[in-house]
Amino acid sequence: MSSPVPAVQPAGPGKYARRPAQLLVESDPVVASSDQNGRNTNREIEVAKIHGGQAIARALKAEGVDTVFILPGGHILPTVDGCVAEGIRVVDVRHEQAAAHAADAYARLTGRLGVVLATAGPGVTDTITGIANAWFANSPILLIGGRHLTTENLRGGLQEMDHPRMFDSITKWADTAHDTSRLPEYIATAARHAFSGRGGPVFLDIPWDVQAGMVEENAIDWPSGYRADRPAGLDDDTLNEVIGLLDRAERPVVFAGTGYRWSRYGDPTAALAGLVETMQAPVFLNSLARGSLRWDHPLLGNRTRSDALRSADVVVALGVDWDFRTGFGKKVAAEAAVIQIDAEPSRIGWNRAAAIGVVADPGAVAAQLADRVGTVGHAGWVEEIAALERQKQAAADEMAAADGGPVPPERFAREVAEFFGDDTIVAADGGDIVSTTAKWLRTSRPGGLLDPGPFGCLGVGAPFALAAKAVEPDTRVGIVYGDGSFGFNGMEFDSLIRHGMPVVGVVGNDGAWNNIKAIHRMLYPDRMVATDLGITRYDLMVEGLGGYGEFVEDASELRPALERAQDSGVPALVNVHIAEQFRMSSAYGG
Q: Which CATH architecture best describes the domain 21-219?
């Protein structure tokens, strides 16, 4: 078992806690010629020095960071040492991609800066997929990369690379630090960019000698007040214009997307509930916004989003991306007026014209509208969507009633969702089977469903679960896998076991890259290749690492196996042989 999370009390962004005694690692004698009264004392006083890694850690702690995710390497050891000295928890994994994914999940669950430390060269390059995934999910995470010594620049130093240029297209800011005394300033600059707009990843490249360099503590200018901390809403004129449009609406829809998850408003979940309950309008949640309302909220749609958008006359889009998942905005009725609210200016009018487009915090705007919008009778419209929802759910229920083995995918999805209930953080890692299961999951809080986001990245399962356990050790955490996705970071079960983090993973194993296989079969049926995996015993791998594993071949065996996995008290994997079926919509985000 790992040691408990240290009792770190973050001082808050830009606020520095009292310096711990262990940071006094070096001091130089300085001759003082006079005391406070001007008398010559000729005595020696001690001037405290700290190394750069400690300055970094203090700046991170001031930003509210209490956990960092790493794979150890020589080029980042001073920063790791600083984190230990400051009481910041260091969680190590088996691959840097997993560390980046874990930092992403940490940011989603806490709203604070997620931090990943990676050593120079291949350590930094291994994070690229995780950083790209965070970029598309708007997760505010900081990658601190080790770098070769400044004295070895352009001389072929160990793992010498110019890292920042590789991150230009997937970060909001990337740079190299050159001065030990300015390291807290660099951290503050990185955080300011990470939390700008919706948010996103940033990269700070730090040479080893800059991290290890000693600096007088009182020579450091410790930053404060370095980023925005108040969400912006609508001005009165715009607010009145929006309310006027909503008052005239007959078939309004509220649609919240990833940008809503990153609202800096105090309680965006209450704001959204207040808005839709006052308006009495159907509401839909996409991607990271899932959990902003409880799964059983009477106005929340699950299977009817496209139907509602096609019939809507006004759509309130709160942090929505009009990308492939929404038909690039074409799933919305052509004549519908879109009120688009987003903290990221580039999203306004992207792929879909906005009747009213405002750069503002979507949570703050939802709260404003909830206080001001009138209650207009939309009972018929609400019931129309609700009736269609019941019809589609009944069809899914019928498919989920199927018995036998291999286990029907819809039955798998229902059993897994019922087992996890509404009090589990679920990491979703896969394609077709995850898309099917997501429709059944009972997500009831922000971050309750941790899926990759629009990048569709495989390999997030165990890293997301590890972060969830680091943040909320007493909360039940589960993982839903496709068998293909398990192969990416399945070895992180070793990390879960080493850190004593019990989770329950369940694999929908159809022995194939089924999402791709079905498309391949449609396009090139005579030349099928590279899409079969076989029914591999991933459960035995987890057992070999010291966890618990079971293999399930019949629907009747699934729930008891999940219960035994939970009762084992260790990281567990239930490997379920499912039937090879395919949902075309899962390939295109429908």
A: 3-Layer(aba) Sandwich (3.40)
